[in-house]
Amino acid sequence: MITDIEPRVGVKEITTYLGLEGWTPSMGGSIAEIWTHEEHSSENILIPKIEAASDFPKRVRLLLRDLSRIEQRDPDEISREISLVHYDVTNLRAQHPQLIDNSIPLTAGYDLFQAARKLVISSAAATIRRQGHFGKSVPHQARDHARHVRLGHTQRGSYILPVISRALPAAAETPAEDNRIHLDINVEESLFDRRVISTMASALKTLEDMAVTADRMPSARTVTEAVAEGVSREMCQALDAVISSEAVAELDVTFDWSRSMRPPGANIRNISFPKESAVIVERIAEQLKSVRQEREHVLYGLITDLHHEAEEGALGGRVGMETILDHRRRVVWFDLDEDTYQLAVRCHGSRKRVIARGILRLGNPPVMTVSYFAPDTTLMDSNVTAE
Length: 387
Prior knowledge:
Layout (H helix, E strand, L loop, with lengths): L10 H10 L3 E5 L3 E6 L2 E9 L7 H16 L3 H9 L3 E9 L10 H23 E2 L9 H9 L1 E2 L3 E2 L2 E8 L18 H6 L1 H22 L6 H7 L6 H11 L6 E7 L13 E5 L3 H12 L6 E13 L8 E9 L2 E9 L1 H13 L3 E8 L5 E9 L12
Antiparallel strand pairs: 1-2, 2-3, 4-8, 4-9, 5-11, 6-8, 7-8, 9-10, 11-12, 11-14, 12-13, 14-15
Helix pairs in contact: 2-3, 4-5, 4-7, 4-9, 7-10, 9-10
């Protein structure tokens, strides 16, 4: 897994940003390019292409100055947008009516930073498998993931802590000798970052529905069902530590999805937890400690094999899905009912990534008892439907 990535204003980031803003290359070579915009016909933007050149920083400053003049915005703001064009930014904002100079007490700030780390770890753990309570069984990959997620500078507007996570577009797989599409291990591992933030958004939205929106205490069944959305005791504890603080009246979480990728299918943007919700969040955490439910693994991959039941009266079929297990490509087999099998057929035909959740039994081959199967919308809005 790549761990040395950090936001920067490089050639790739500049060209991605300009392309999203409607600029297109008109001429150039290996040293520099000229980009133009049909709405700014009198303007030309020069993009330096050799980052190792001694004058590259100067050329970038001139580029930012030109964009600032054209867009009528602060160059630092544009620079930040360019540097984050391939990143998802989760903003944790602690609010209090008596904040002084956009500051909060040291203990509250410490709790916010700790909560950010725990939210990332619990979300990463839930992206790998669904459990109501992880305890000491948090997957190593989840802890490792938290080590390369980055924090931005705190921002004005109450007290805002940006959590910066990589979001790289999926590279296209190339057909192997058997003309079948296979997963690229490096690509799949790089997509884990986006999937973690998507899990976090879904889980926090589910918690908001239970602890803020609902007009009653959630039932034991509702709490158990929330585990399937990524909610865990550890996530609840991370939230509770912040919203229970005397210095915090409300915790807002906003998701600024990378512009270089489509947002996840749910496209969750804003979530809020007022102080009053702390009691319910704490209660949910206690219930999750004792949830009796087999832990379910979450697998992402491509459908590679389809075997429809041909016997009279039989419905559904057996499916083989290529996924990544222990940094290796493996085909996991599972049975689907007729409607879900037909969905798998469409995903196979359109080469859409899918997600499967259920009880995984490792063997040769590995098999799964599936409780959920669908197109993977954590990366983009899928055009594969269940109809």
